[in-house]
Amino acid sequence: MNPLSSSLLCSAGFAAALLLATALRLWLGLRQIRHVQAHRDRVPEPFAATIDLQAHRKAADYTSARQQMALWHTVFSAAVLLGWTLLGGLQQLAHANSALFGRGLLAQLLLLGEFALIGALLDLPWDLWRTFGLESRFGFNRSTPGLFVADQLRNALLGALIMAPLALLVLWLMRASALWWLWGWAAFAVFSLSMMVVFPTWIAPLFNRFEPLPDGEVKRRAQDLMRRCGFALQGLYVMDGSRRSAHANAYFTGIGSARRVVLFDTLLGQLEATQIEAVLAHEVGHYKRHHIQQRLALTLGMSLAGFALLGLLAGRSWFYRGLGFDPDLLGGNQAAALILFSLALPVFGVFLTPLSAGWSRKHEFEADAYAAQHSDASALGSALLRMYRDNASTLTPDPWFVRFYYSHPPALQRLGRLGLPAAAAA
To answer: Does 409 fall in a domain?
Structure first.
């Protein structure tokens, strides 16, 4: 197949995949809204004794509002993607960048930075509306304009300081070695493992305050749980999540000496000691069932496949031309290869989303089962119900939407696996 035919085939395949992925997202989103609204005025029978109608309606309206925003953002993102690729937006940016700064490594690094900055600016209105529109409307936002701006600036500065050296190394490797993709992946793997220590220890505290879990019944139960489970970690921390949002959560983070369990302060305000113990047991279950290691192995494996694929495509002119970029005009442009690949890959990755989501739901069931073995199953069930209610999570999601997107099982499925009717979990 000649280069022109290959380029046209690449363009057609990309356009078709983008159209199909966008249509699929819109169809699923509309299904979710219709299904949730159809069940808005009646609490599902298993939850009738524990969830009042007002809370159920709020969850339905919040879910629908979020999904409506997601639908508009899907269309907007597809249009921006077309602008960057088939309509020549990246070509124009690279041409202007080359005219001003040349084609050296630093100029290409600058192109990556310009692309990231433009993308952040395009998404800024959506972030503003999500925070000060949607989240405020439903009573969840606690951020202020000053804090929002500070967060954006911190994110931008940290992103530049952390990602720029890695990107510069990959760009240099692309020029220096035929096996650049293998060395680039090795650098990415080292970076990813390092971040699992660096992020919880040094980066996260730049955005939130983390304090040791205070003395009391919760701490005593937590320490007893850790001893029963044979689980050693650096500490149990409380994060000031209420500084930005009323949503409650808990998570496990870090590896090695940086392992820690973090509870949102909003969670401590909502749950009783036995419920918090059960939530902690669930988080420990993720580690004890080797979910952290499995997800890390999958990330590294998929990233290796991605680097290998990029190594193959970066040397093919039809790959550039098929995505709206003429490499002959600017000569070798490694930054353009990285950007085009980062734009195209998620389009095809959409179709793997159900596999990832299903695997994640399986892990949640396993962590629930572990928690039921090492704590009170009914306390876990009641904690889940309380979190569903307080976070305005719908109890009636569309089954197809769940299969495609949900990383956590719906409430009825989780309680059923625990052997608990909703009323018993109250």
So the answer is: no
> What gap in Å lies between CA 90 and CA 100, rounded to an integer?
15
Integer Cα distance of 216 and 230 in angstroms: 21
320 domain residue, yes or no:
yes
Contact 370, 284 (CB under 8 A): yes
The tally of domains found in the chain comes to 1
* Gap between the Cα atoms of 250 and 380, Å rounded: 13
Look at strands 235-239 and 260-264 and give their pairing. Answer: parallel
Whether residue 156 lies inside any domain: the answer is: yes
The structure tokens listed for 340 are 């085009």
pTM of the model: 0.93
Give tens-digit pLDDT for 80-123. Answer: 999 999 999 999 999 999 999 988 899 999 999 999 999 999 99
Question: What pLDDT sits at residue 4?
Answer: 67
Phi, psi of 347 (to 5 degrees): -60, -45
Q: In the predicted model, what is the mean pLDDT of the chain?
A: 92
Check if the beta carbon of residue 242 is closer than 8 Å to that of residue 144: no
The answer on pLDDT for 233 being more than 70 is no
